[in-house]
Structure formats: structure tokens, C-alpha cells
Amino acid sequence: MQTDERTSGFHGFHARNLRGEDVDFSRYDGKVVLAVNTASKCGFTPQYAGLEELYKKYEGDGLVILGFPCNQFGNQEPGDAQAIESTCLVNYGVSFPVFEKVDVNGPRAHPVFRWLTTELPGLLGRSIKWNFTKFLIGRDGRPIRRFAPITTPAKVEPAIREALGLRG
Asked: Where is the active site (predicted)?
């Protein structure tokens, strides 16, 4: 499911987008990435709007936000790819890349989330507590920081600006 993450970090992984196309994360080499496990029917779902705002504001500076829908928390992402895409686009105007539904915990967790939770363990160790956990990854593919689901996109902005090398 991935190449050698020990030598290429985040850029050694890949995942399928909502249209079923395989996306090699090497395309994000040189970009700052915010990877987020998302859900369409979660109390934190309105964070999509804040994530989109950050994406539009900093995309030109090298930020990429990647959404990874997950149905492991309270059945809050029950829909198929079309339903997920509709929610993201129609309700929140999401233009950043969103991927096929994945597991983020357990034996079927997507390899990128197994790697991220190993590199940046949280309160539950190598597990993710809930939807909208955020992982900030540097331009070099190395994880920088993990943010809890309750941390709003606006509160992540200073760390994003720092990772992008923006002052002021």
C-alpha cells in the first residue's frame, strides 16, 4: 500500500481519491500537508468550512489539506464516495483533495495513519480518538504536530504559517 516510508516519510504513501484514482503522495513533496480524518455526520463536521478557508488562504504558499473520511467513530460517515463528495462540495464548498473512506485505527487502518500515529502518538497512544484529528506534515514529509478533534482549523493556523515559513 506504500513505498518505503522510512526513507521518504509521508511522500512514500498513496491512497485512492473519491473517484477511485490512486494518488501517489510524492506529488506533495515540497508542500506542507494537513491530513485530517473526517466525517459527514459529526459534531465537528462544520470544521470542513474552516479547513477550506485555510486551504484557500495558504494554497498559494504551499499548503495542501487532505481529507480522509472515516466511519470508525459512531457511524458518522455511513455514505458512499458520491454521498461524501456531495456533502463536502454542496454543504461546505470543499475544493481540497478528499480520499476514499479509510480506517484510521485497528488492523485495517490505512498505512499512512498507522505511520502518523506511530510518529505522533496522542492521548490514546497510537490510536485516534475521534473524527477531525489533524496531522501537520512538513515540506520534507516529516510529521510536525498532531491536533485534537476539538482544535479548530483557526487554532491550527499559527502552526501552518510556521511550517510554511511565513512571518507576522
From this structure: 42
Which of 36, 39, 42, 128 is flagged as catalytic?
42
* Active-site annotation holds for 70: no
Amino acid at 32: V
Where does residue 154 rank: exposed (0-12), middle (13-18), buried (19+ CB within 10 A)?
exposed
Pairing of strands 143-147, 32-38: unpaired
Domains recognised in the chain with CATH numbers: 5-164 (3.40.30.10)
Q: Where are the alpha helices (DSSP H) in the chain?
A: 5-8, 47-58, 81-86, 92, 111-119, 153-164
SS3 of 65-99: the string is EEEEECCCCCCCCCCCHHHHHHHHHHHHCCCCCEE
**Quick one: DSSP state of residue 136?**
E
